[in-house]
Amino acid sequence: MIAIAALPTETVRALQAGAPDAYGTPPEHHVAQGSGNPCRHCLRLIPEGAAMLILAYRPFAGLHPYAETGPIFLCADACARHDGTAIPEVLRDSPDYLLKGYNSRDRIVYGTGRVVAAAEIPTYAEQVFEQRDVAYIHVRSARNSCYQARIDRA
Is this structure's pTM higher than 0.90? Predict the structure, then answer.
């Protein structure tokens, strides 16, 4: 079984309060313009007309060659964190996603990166977790490579 993990609430609340992003700049305030604005905390699409944040995010504790940084969206107002085994709304919004397995040192486990149909995310994640050296999996946009969520063993 797998668990889909959103960004930690503590991190998101700090960003919503104006804490600096991965580049040391405050999040930008915008208004959602329809679909395509997935919040990385509630893992839902931010409704059209709702306030949202755009910021640089790096889903790694330290800097190293594999520590990708990129743009993400967050609800500007407090939202409930998605946490569970159900596939969230944002991972059903696109036809496919890029999945990559990482080891406990936050390095990509080569051979695990693959663009996977949205409906096949759980099946492929289970296959990747058959490799003992895979500690977790990142889900990224297949088109823009933006970080979406993390998958852990449940």
Answer: yes
